[in-house]
User: What shape does this take?
Amino acid sequence: MKTILIQLDTDPLPSTFDRVVAVDADVDQLFSYGGVTPEMVEPLVHGAMFTRGPKDLKSTAIFIGGSNVAAGEKLLAKVQKVFFGPVRVSVLMDSNGSNTTAAAAVLSARKHLTLAGCEAVVLAGTGPVGQRAAQILASEGARVRVASRSVERAGQTCEAIRQALPQAQVIPVAAGNTSETRAACEGAALVIAAGAAGVELLSAETRGQLGSLRVAIDLNAVPPAGIAGVEVFDKGTDRGGILCYGAIGVGGLKMKIHKGAIRRLFEANDAVLETAAIYQLGLGLV
Assistant: This one.
């Protein structure tokens, strides 16, 4: 039985990145649809559900992608509503690479730090990758400061994390200027920068003042760096006593997790792979 991956992308054109990864993950057939909205989902999912017998449903799966993570979450919710009983297929949601990137960042930090009880800061923590990185860190028992220019937005993100993970130790902090950012990062052993491309979130001067900092991870691949002094290819590179990871340094593990998640889809017909499940999968790959 050939494996079929149905790509539901919220952008007008299905992502070539995600298509290449699917091929490299040994998918036999890839059906790609762009501009997908929740209103379009039902017939596409029915086509996956009703064309193969119960024993063969695990050979069909759905990948939800696109640049808009909120739109991807709405597609995931709709897909799950269409399923009923055992008549379903496995589904992976990784819009904008948010889940696989966050998992790879935390797993990179985990190589050097005991996360339970660790003081961690996620700069731009209200964005799709930042929120997921904060959630994963909290699931490991870290005390996480969710930093944003807007404390109100940071508070909303913390509340959303607590809804998914009631025991999460997350607090909102302001990081709208240099002094606020320094205060937000003071005493932290780990800083992850998950901001928009080309925006510096932590200056070299401020970074040098953080005596407790042990690991710095910058997920921005576009100059200037989100954390000044971190190079895009850094992979545990010691820079002044701080172990640094850049976007491409984390990217190899992100790709490994992405491919592994696609392969996992075809092991059963009832997997739902999003933040927590993708991180658990990543733990088995490092």
